[in-house]
Amino acid sequence: MPIAPGSTLGILGGGQLGRMTALAARTLGYKVHALDPDPDCPARSVLDRCIVASFDDVAQAAELASQCDVVTLEIEKVATDGLVAAARFAPVRPSADVLAMVQDRGVQKGWLSRNGFPVGPFREVATSEQLLEATRAMGGACFVKSCVGGYDGRGQLRLSGDARLDDGGGAGGTGGLEREAASLFASLGGQRCVVEQALDLEAELSVLVARSPSGKLAVYPPALNHHVDQILDWSLLPGPLSAAVTGQAVQIALDLAVGLRVEGLLVVELFLLKDGRLLINELAPRPHNSYHASEVACATSQFEQAVRAVCDLPLGSVEIVRPAAILNLLGDVWLDGAPPPFEAALEIPGVRLHLYGKRVARPGRKMGHLSATGRTPEEALVAAKLAMARLSAQAGLPLPGR
Ligand SMILES: Nc1ncnc2c1ncn2[C@@H]1O[C@H](COP(=O)(O)OP(=O)(O)OP(=O)(O)O)[C@@H](O)[C@H]1O
Ligand SMILES: [Mg+2]
């Protein structure tokens, strides 16, 4: 049975994804409650009720659900026990099972490879000795990522081929290497990690698929994503990709959504390698930064689609109405905490500003994004970069175009 407009949607997490989901839900006529540890979380000002509690507060997750008709999430670090407790009061979409698979990198990568999905070489490690052995086995540059808790490149380290722990030089013999591995392991919190071979990337893309509880599917065209320092910098929708790559990426996303029986959204981050192979980087069962352009490019934004999917309404059209680009606004653009001259950016035709209502700007923190539309995605990116140049000039930052 659809959960009709007028009902109440609960969101575990009140960050920017929760805020934009709440806004879309309100447009559709829903009331929105959310749970977040931060009393000033971005969603707060657009909620009917905000429960301030930690993401592992099982009792408060149940309390949220007790006042809602359906519960979803916007962040993976909520406790699966909280989802189980919430499910006693209202349907929880995605389910605790899907979250448990996705929220741990080691479990996720293991599941993907066991189920025949394409992933790059990786090893899960639980001690610094295993870490040392794994970096040796990778035989070159690699990424070491903690299994839980990382995002935007946090909780991970990139080891260059030269500095890798099996190079035998500079670290003072085997004892030195062991110490190096131990300190690396400790710097990631001394917890289970995944060691991945650093892949030779041609491009990065993502695919968003929505699946409703009654099994309806809607898949968006892939987005092309550009990262700087492991953080998403810009994204184009539709991604200018070959028909073959597009077809393959869409098929992977559909197979995953059906295989996992996801209820809500599933985003698949993919690597296109220089040798033409397409490998899965990671999954997210929620709205995603790389589909923010869907708000201006598509007939149905990812946020409205999330609401439609979890409420079992008909899914919206994924048609591209006009190509678009987004550029993330990080705290770096706030000079000494002062906001940049947004009016200068908004003068550029087709450019829009999306701010998340975060009070404190810190380097690397996602504060908002710029979006732009154009006749082509590339043209939209030029407009967004022009707008960004006007903002970053004030902060004395290098011009975009990296
Ligand atoms: N094995 C790899 N080979 C090459 N590049 C990689 C690899 N792993 C990660 N990267 C680079 O680092 C970026 C971030 O990695 P990943 O998606 O694992 O981290 P994250 O912290 O979950 O990021 P986000 O929260 O933005 O998705 C990737 O998009 C890619 O640019
Ligand atoms: Mg990622």
From TrEMBL:
It comes from the Bacteria. Pfam families: ATP-grasp, PurK_C, RS_preATP-grasp-like. This is N5-carboxyaminoimidazole ribonucleotide synthase. GO terms for cellular component: cytosol. GO terms for molecular function: 5-(carboxyamino)imidazole ribonucleotide synthase activity; ATP binding; metal ion binding; phosphoribosylaminoimidazole carboxylase activity. PROSITE patterns: ATP_GRASP. SUPFAM superfamilies: Glutathione synthetase ATP-binding domain-like (SSF56059), PreATP-grasp domain (SSF52440), Rudiment single hybrid motif (SSF51246). Keywords: ATP-binding, Ligase, Lyase, Nucleotide-binding, Purine biosynthesis. It catalyses: 5-amino-1-(5-phospho-beta-D-ribosyl)imidazole + hydrogencarbonate + ATP = 5-carboxyamino-1-(5-phospho-D-ribosyl)imidazole + ADP + phosphate + 2 H(+). Pathway: Purine metabolism; IMP biosynthesis via de novo pathway; 5-amino-1-(5-phospho-D-ribosyl)imidazole-4-carboxylate from 5-amino-1-(5-phospho-D-ribosyl)imidazole (N5-CAIR route): step 1/2. ATP binds at residues 105, 145, 150-156, 196-199, 204, 227, 281-282. Catalyzes the ATP-dependent conversion of 5-aminoimidazole ribonucleotide (AIR) and HCO(3)(-) to N5-carboxyaminoimidazole ribonucleotide (N5-CAIR). Residues 109-311 form the ATP-grasp domain. One of its GO terms (biological process) is 'de novo' IMP biosynthetic process. NCBIfam families: PRK06019.1-5, purK. Belongs to the PurK/PurT family. Its EC number is 6.3.4.18. Homodimer.
